[in-house]
Design a protein that fits this description.
Blueprint lengths: L5 E3 L4 E3 L3 H6 L14 E6 L8 E6 L2
Antiparallel strand pairs: 1-2, 3-4
């Protein structure tokens, strides 16, 4: 698994997802622009606060 940098974003934190992966899934177009509205579900996977998370793209 590749490492991704966390970046501050006005009171929250963002993580980068490779645009080619999102393009293959139809989330962004050929120009890298979002196609419609998309949400992501982020879930903590552990009770020990070790920092394991799962991200799931959710279609509206």
């Amino acid at each position: 698994m590749e490492m991704r940098k966390l970046s501050p974003a006005g009171g929250c934190v963002t993580v980068s997802i490779p645009i080619d992966d999102l393009r293959e899934r139809g989330v962004v177009d050929e120009d890298g622009e979002l196609v419609g509205s998309h949400w992501a579900k982020v879930e903590s996977l552990d009770q020990d606060d070790k920092g394991d998370y799962r991200l799931e793209l959710v279609s509206p």
